Inverse folding.
């Protein structure tokens, strides 16, 4: 696979993440309760920024350092988990623990949907490398 194809995959991945983020955000935004609005926005932003950056960092690693892709995927998984924990901790401190269960459940929906997407997308891509 050449650099142009990998760049196209990074663009495709970023667009898919945006689509999935919007697909999760708007139903919660319009049909969710008031207590779900902030968690949904935080989940949307977490998903959008982390996974968009993840796609472009993958492109950089795959195009220059293919032998380090396994380390990249391991590092991505660990960082994603730690970032989610940090977001939960920050929300807990800021909100004083109010509606923590709602926040956790909404954030978990975003986290799991993108975790599945990430795994499926990159398992297919890795087979082609």
């Amino acid at each position: 696979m050449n650099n142009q194809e990998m760049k196209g995959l990074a663009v495709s991945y970023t667009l898919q993440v945006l689509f999935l983020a919007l697909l999760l955000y708007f139903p919660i935004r319009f049909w969710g309760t008031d207590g779900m609005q902030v968690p949904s926005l935080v989940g949307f932003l977490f998903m959008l920024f982390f996974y968009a950056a993840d796609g472009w960092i993958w492109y950089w690693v795959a195009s220059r350092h293919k032998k380090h892709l396994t380390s990249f995927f391991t590092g991505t998984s660990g960082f994603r988990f730690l970032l989610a924990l940090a977001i939960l901790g920050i929300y807990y401190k800021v909100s004083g623990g109010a509606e923590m269960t709602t926040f956790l459940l909404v954030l978990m929906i975003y986290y799991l949907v993108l975790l599945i997407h990430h795994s499926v997308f990159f398992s297919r891509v890795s087979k082609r490398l």
In short: The helical segments are 3-31, 37-64, 69-95, 100-128.
